[in-house]
């Protein structure tokens, strides 16, 4: 049965305990669960977060968006030698060490191709699952996307795949021409205003609370027309 309400959770980045607490606020019988991406990297428990979100997807039809960190991980798995440096710069070694249950130093001491071989032997689902993650979803009058959309396009759906995952300039402070609310993560709200609460401007709702940096994990309760409530875990 199609649900008329949804619960949208911002960037998690391996913060498993925060995710567990946030899920206790989710009204699963009446709310569609939507997560905006960036489940992994930097935080202490990306392995547990991945296991949990995959279970939510399988058992509760959770909609899982692709974040730029999932894309970085996928790129690394497909081309380890070429993509290792960039993925490492973005916190990827923490995720790999947690999945393989080895020290970060041991990850960095091995050839990237060897590490990927071990990852795929232990978790053979990784590539197919990462490739299946969607770039955006809609829920009534809401667009839900990891980073944002390109307002210069005649239709926001023509936004490049790169911009769905990475856009900042040209989105936050530009006029919202979609006629819809846009719920997004990617940019910690502390960089947009002096608060760990959601950032709002012209129908745009930023919900990356910078939890992995000591900020907050944010979720929104929405119906098909508007945002009804905010949950902020500090």
TrEMBL record:
Stored InterPro entries: Ap4A_hydrolase (IPR050126), Calcineurin-like_PHP (IPR004843), Metallo-depent_PP-like (IPR029052)
Annotated Gene3D superfamilies: 3.60.21.10
SUPFAM superfamilies: Metallo-dependent phosphatases
Domain Calcineurin-like phosphoesterase: 7-197
Domain of life: Bacteria
Name assigned to this protein: Serine/threonine protein phosphatase
Taxonomic source organism: Ruoffia tabacinasalis
Lineage of producing organism: Bacteria, Bacillati, Bacillota, Bacilli, Lactobacillales
